[in-house]
Design a protein that fits this description.
This protein has 112 residues and is mainly alpha-helical. The chain is 71% helix and 0% strand.
Amino acid sequence: MKYYEIGQRIRRYRKACGLSQEALAEKACISATHMSHIETGNTKLSLPVLVNIAEALSVQTDALLYDTPRFSKTVASEHIQNLLDSCTAEQLYVIIDTLEALKVSLDKHVGD
C-alpha cells in the first residue's frame, strides 16, 4: 500500500473542502501531528482513522485509497464555492456566462 499517495489524496480533498490539517484532524478525532504524518506518508493509518477521515471529507474510502478522478458532489460544490468566493462581481458574471454556454454544449454533445 502506498501511504504517501493516500496521504496526498487526503490532502487534495482536504484542500478542496477548504479545511486546515487541524480542522480535519479534529473532525477525524486524531491529533494534528498525526494528520500531518498521514498526509506526508510518514505513518500508516488504521482502518477506523481512514473511515473517520473519509466521513469528515464526505467522500468514500475508495476515493482516498485509489487514484480515482471522481469528486463527490459535496466536495466539488465546496471547491467551486471556494473559487467563487474569491471572485469579483465582474468575474462572477463571466463565470456564469461561461458555465451556461458550457452546459448547453455538454447537453448537445455528451450523453447522460
